[in-house]
Amino acid sequence: MITEVPVGLSLLSAGYCLHPELLTLRGGSLKPVAFPAGYALIRHPKYGPILFDTGYSARFFRETASLPALLYRKITPVVYRDEESAARRLEEGGITPGDVRYVVLSHFHADHIGGVRDFPQAQFIYLRKSYDAVSRLGPVRATKAGFLPGLLPDDFNLRSLPLDEYSAMRPLPEGLPFTEAYDLLGDGSLLAVELSGHAAGMIGLFVSTAEHDYLLCADTVWSSRAFRENRKPHPAAGLIMSSRAEYNHNFERLRRIHEQLPALRIVPSHCREALALWGTGSVK
Prior knowledge:
Metallo-beta-lactamase, Chain A; alpha+beta; about 25% helix
């Protein structure tokens, strides 16, 4: 095990967006394909249900009803049904929104924070510079950055636990392309690493079940094919990246860890293949 405390894990999605594959995978099709808005439910033996991101919610459509945010919806069309929301899926599995103590946010793009308002008791764990990169942007620049501030609850700052201020660092096993990680809960169960590039301060999460190790890598890539086949996005995708250099660095890290630890289950948030292989479709 990469982590020290095994947890339960359900890989789910709440809606999807349509995007030309070519922009996310060099040499891909120009035809728009579906990219699920993936998130994960982690069942911790002590802290109970924890979310890694939330996917979309109906609030996305209210927040993009007028310009400039309407451009977000027009450029990246979203397909979503209310029964797909993270809150609804958890309730179907016997978990109320108030049961969720922590929501880990990989970064602040709308397809990752769409449902956070549905969890009124949760505290939010993220890398401080991820929020700082978007929180002071005006409407036009925020839309360009994929951030819709109305998706966050009014008391977001009061419920925030920035991991670089509250979490200690823990060494990772030798051989990984990361030397240490943020120990989110202090027990070695959830280990976060910075994967900036797609977005400033984006994090991924190492978690282990009793059977498998996982790396929830957020948007470091949009599909497993990218790191398996060494196919970066089209250069045009760099226009919306926070840093092309950091993106390339972390893309190579992902390729190396896949080669060194082929049994590790790397889960990009928008990968249909990973969800089909390891997703549960419902809370278990």
